[in-house]
Amino acid sequence: MIKKIKKNRYTEVYALGQHICMSAHKARRVIDQIRGRSYEETLMILELMPYRACYPIFKLVYSAAANASHNMGFNEASLVISKAEVNQSTTVKKLKPRARGRSYAIKRPSCYITIVLKDISLNDEEFKRSQDSLLCLKKPGWINKKKKYTDMTSYDMYNNGGLWDKK
Question: What is the dihedral sign for C-alpha 81, 86, 92, 97?
């Protein structure tokens, strides 16, 4: 069962997966790898990792991105996983019959996974606005001028990455 929740109406979108049948410890091993990464990079990492926990986390990240683009109109290329947490949920306890009439307890743990995506393009716009306000505080233009080379002699192979730049 997957729930979708919007938290901060302007920048963040949630996706919450409840009662996912796996240990919280095993899910945290995967979540720690994707925290703070971009949406597209996260999908590539989750597809290539060999753990069973990757599939439900992949579905949650994909669901949160679909929620962000449909409900909020965010661009998927500018989404970043700002918060990802795994919490322990209920444990299903069963009894398995064993030899001599004894029973053996089987514990099936489950967990809650929360994925929060943040749109960084909105932060870039705020950053640009703050930079525009700081432009008036800069030094005069004649102090900040640097010598610019326009002839081709300054562009040698050591400054531009050398011969190995071209493929």
Answer: positive
Domain boundaries, the chain: 2-120
CA dihedral of 62, 65, 70, 72, whole degrees rounded to 10:
160
- Is domain 2-120 in CATH 3.40.50.720, yes or no? no
pLDDT digits (tens, 9 = 90+) for 42-51: 999 999 999 9
Burial of 85 (0-12, 13-18, 19+ CB in 10 A): middle
Q: Which residues pair with 103 in a beta bridge?
A: 97
Q: What is the 3-state secondary structure (H, E, C) of 131-148?
A: HHHHHCCCCCHHHHCCCC
Token pair for residue 17? Answer: 């997966």
CB 154 within 8 A of CB 146: no
Residue whose C-alpha is closest to residue 65's, from 113, 111, 116, 114 = 116
Phi, psi of 63 (to 5 degrees): -65, -40
pLDDT digits (tens, 9 = 90+) for 55-69: 999 999 999 999 999
Strand order across the 12-20 sheet: 2-3, 12-20, 103-119, 79-97
| Per-residue pLDDT band at 2 (split at 50, 70, 90) | confident
